[in-house]
Amino acid sequence: MEKFQKEFLGYRKKDVNQFIQETIEKTENFLEKLKAQERQIETLEKQIIHYQKSEADLKSFLENSAGDPVRIRNYSYQKASRMIEDAQRNADRIISAAIERSEELEQKVIVAEKKLQRFKNQLRTIIEQQTDIVEQIKDLEMER
After folding, report:
1. How far is CA 117 from CA 41, 107, 122, in A?
2. Which of 4, 43, 51, 122 has its C-alpha lying 20 to 30 A from 71's C-alpha?
3. Residue 8: what are its φ and ψ, rounded to 5°?
4. pLDDT for 67
5. In whole angstroms, what is the distance from residue 108 CA to residue 118 CA?
6. What is the DSSP letter of 9?
7. Mean pLDDT of 74-102
8. Range 44-57 average pLDDT
9. First CA to last CA across the chain, in angstroms?
10. Strand, coil or helix: 6
């Protein structure tokens, strides 16, 4: 348990606030790790299901083919074709997601550039105003 320094009407506010902030950060880190682990478990469960199905298909085929080389070759070609199709679908999905993300980033860059230009204009205006004030002060000093 944290020990807080005491003040007039209770514990020192700074100590309590720091403790609360540290607790919040630890909790957020824990929740992030938990979510990442949940996503990883979900991915692994999907992979297990996929591999179990592949194993069952292969086992069934081997039991039914009884060593017939033509059937084994045909099955191998079919399986290879399905794997290539799956890979192409996954590649298309990944490419689409990357394009979408790049478009989002491009929009963010445009917004950031506009904000930067606005900031530069505001800064230029402030500097001009301060320069005018400095000139006015010089003029007043010279009048003395």
Report:
1. 46, 15, 9
2. 51
3. -55, -50
4. 66
5. 15
6. T
7. 89
8. 90
9. 67
10. strand
Residue 75 is encoded by which pair of tokens? Answer: 């099955």
Statement: residue 28 has pLDDT above 90: yes
CA distances from 7 to 14, 15, 16, 102, 144 (A): 11, 11, 12, 54, 54
In angstroms, the CA 54 to CA 45 distance is 14
**Number of residues that make up the chain:** 144
Give mean pLDDT, residues 26-53: 93
What residues does 7 pair with on adjacent strands? 10
User: Of 86, 89, 64, which is closest to residue 74 (Cα–Cα)?
Assistant: 64
Report in angstroms the alpha-carbon separations of 10 from 4, 18, 22.
9, 15, 20
Q: Are 24 and 16 in contact (CB under 8 A)?
A: no
| DSSP for residue 4 | -
